[in-house]
Amino acid sequence: MDVKLGVLAGDTRAVARAITWVENGDPRGAEVIRGVYASTGRAYIVGLTGSPGAGKSTLVSRLAALLAARGQKVGILAVDPSSPFSGGAILGDRVRMFDVALTRDVYIRSMGTRGALGGLNRATRMAARILDAAGFDWIFVETVGAGQAEVDVHDVAYTTAVVMAPGMGDDIQAMKAGIMEIGDLFIINKADHDGADRTATQVESVLQLSMTTGWNPPVLKVSAELNTGIDNVVDTIERHHTHLVASGKLDALKIRMAKLDVLEILKARLADMMKQQLEQPAVQVELEKVASKQSDPYSLADIIFEQSWRNT
Amino acid sequence: MEQKIRVLVAKPGLDGHDRGAKVLARAFMDAGMEVIYTGIRRTPEQIAEVAVQEDVDVVALSCLSGAHNTLFPKVVDLLKEKGADDILVMGGGVIPEDDIPFLKEHGISEVFGPGTPLATCVDYIRSHVKKEA
Ligand code: B12
Ligand SMILES: Nc1nc2c(ncn2[C@@H]2O[C@H](COP(=O)(O)OP(=O)(O)OP(=O)(O)O)[C@@H](O)[C@H]2O)c(=O)[nH]1
Ligand SMILES: [Mg+2]
Fold first, then answer.
1. How far is Cα B62 from Cα A77, in angstroms, rounded to an integer?
2. What was the ipTM of the complex prediction?
3. What are the AAA+ ATPase domain coordinates in residue numbering (chain A) (predicted)?
4. Which atom belonging to ligand 1 lies closest to the Cα atom of B110?
5. Whose C-alpha in A70, A109, A121, B129 is 20 to 30 A from the C-alpha of A17?
6. Host H or E run for residue A270
7. Is pLDDT of A168 > 70?
8. Are A78 and A114 in contact (CB under 8 A)?
9. What confidence score (pLDDT) does residue A98 get?
10. What domains does chain B contain, in order, with CATH numbers?
11. Is B17 in the pocket of ligand 1 (CB under 6 A)?
């Protein structure tokens, strides 16, 4: 199987293998990205974040079903937390997505966070590039159940939707500083429960305090369970897309994405390099000096950093 | 480079006994593996397709209803059709001793019955999944 050609042809097995490689930091993943990057940039990437259990997975599966019925190809990257202790994970998002699992043109991939803290997996960005190259029209990225710090999805998606459920008034207050700021739209899910109106009003009042940038984030009420209001979500995402294009923001975003693609790779390489340096026998002596306060961590970091550059 | 073993824990057919599958999922997670659990009542088609999409190394089929002889080989055949016959398929649940040779002939690499220690299931995966360097 030639994975690169397979990805370009939209072959499921090739796409799946390529994502495994980028997730594992396998050099073959980098080769695939090099080979397919020219074919990326066509997919529209949507992020979904929000509190644990708000209904993100159920909603994504509804969105995917609706778009697939319109003849669109949909890729889903669903991130769940990895155990910080074992490094393992139970990736449960997919259980809610079985209705669309066999729909032609829908691809779902579960990912563990593998130690990343921003609500995604370090390879989610590159996995999205692979799906893009494979011809998916839409890519949905579901984060782990997020509080306020997990805002990385904003760096991956063109449109970010924050999903909430009724009865979390306090949470909205707490989220003010974090994910309330990254939402391009707010979805109050479980509108079949009491309290959706109240939650919507609370969200709106928090949003009124923020500065306008030519786009006022709509607050939508839906029920993923009953499959109501889903078309409205798609319409709103499309309207946001149109807004980004018309305002020139999409071009700026694409440059920002390119920058972040490069940054991600540089960070990984530097981290590897520095970790290797830290394992050098000569450094162990210096580490002991830091421990016994004969030296300090900044001074040692300076030495290691300079040496790494000399060695490359 | 960090390799993680990915396992699909799957419940084919109409069998609703999910306790064993959940216990296994948890044990595999505790052993550092990434586990995707299908939930109950999945078709062999769904299971094979998910295995391919998720690029798992192992499919762990659990069945306590007695329908293993038709369902397990079906999953193996579908994986083969999809060019994914390198995936290790193992089975377990309430399975009579006499059925085990038949299942093995049909591509199930090993069968584990009630009372199997979880460590045995974990070790089997660790020693049978070939991770290229
Ligand atoms: C608990 C139980 C139930 C619970 C299930 C709760 C649940 N959510 O899981 C309830 C009460 C709901 C139930 C219902 C029924 N049950 Co019941 N049930 C059992 C019982 C007593 C224990 C099963 C169990 O949970 N064991 C604990 C778990 C941890 O063990 P396990 O699943 O066997 O898994 C272990 C190993 O087998 C192995 N393993 C299992 N799968 C796999 C897969 C892989 C890859 C690997 C490596 C290992 C592995 O590893 C696990 C850890 O050791 C068994 C009898 C028995 N002793 O097995 C009957 C049993 C399975 N039930 C049986 C029956 C008939 C039924 C019903 C049809 C009864 C009825 N007439 O209504 C219903 C059907 C339910 C349904 N929708 O399918 C029969 C099945 C007969 C058969 N296969 O020929 C059994 C065998 C009882 C009997 N002797 O008749 N049941
Ligand atoms: N009543 C009602 N329940 C819903 C609705 N949408 C989802 N649920 C239920 O809410 C629970 C959580 O749904 P998920 O889709 O798994 O939520 P999630 O946000 O993806 O959860 P995490 O990924 O664990 O953070 C499930 O039991 C769903 O069935 C809805 O619109 N109405
Ligand atoms: Mg989810």
1. 26
2. 0.94
3. 42-186
4. 47
5. A70
6. helix A249-279
7. no
8. no
9. 77
10. 6-128 (3.40.50.280)
11. yes
Integer Cα distance of A222 and A162 in angstroms: 13
B36/B25 Cα distance (integer angstroms): 8
A90–B29 CB contact, under 8 Å = yes
pTM over 0.90: yes
Helices A12-24 and A27-36 cross at an angle (nearest 10°) of: 130
- Asked whether residue B114 carries a pLDDT value surpassing 90, the answer given is yes
Instruction: Give residue A244's identity as a one-letter amino acid code.
Output: L
Smallest Cα–Cα separation from B31: which of A116, A89, A23, A80?
Answer: A89
Contact A88 B42 (CB under 8 A): no
Q: Which tokens in the block code for residue B34? A: 């990434």
Residue type for position A51: S
Helices (H) and strands (E) in chain B, counts: 5, 5
Domains and CATH numbers, chain A: 40-247 (3.40.50.300), 259-310 (no CATH)
pLDDT-derived band of residue A312, with 50, 70 and 90 as boundaries?
A: low
**Which residue is it, tokens 């040496």?**
A307
Tens digits of residue pLDDT in A202-229: 888 888 877 677 899 999 999 999 999 9
- Closest partner residue to A16 (CB to CB) among B31, B39, B54 is B54
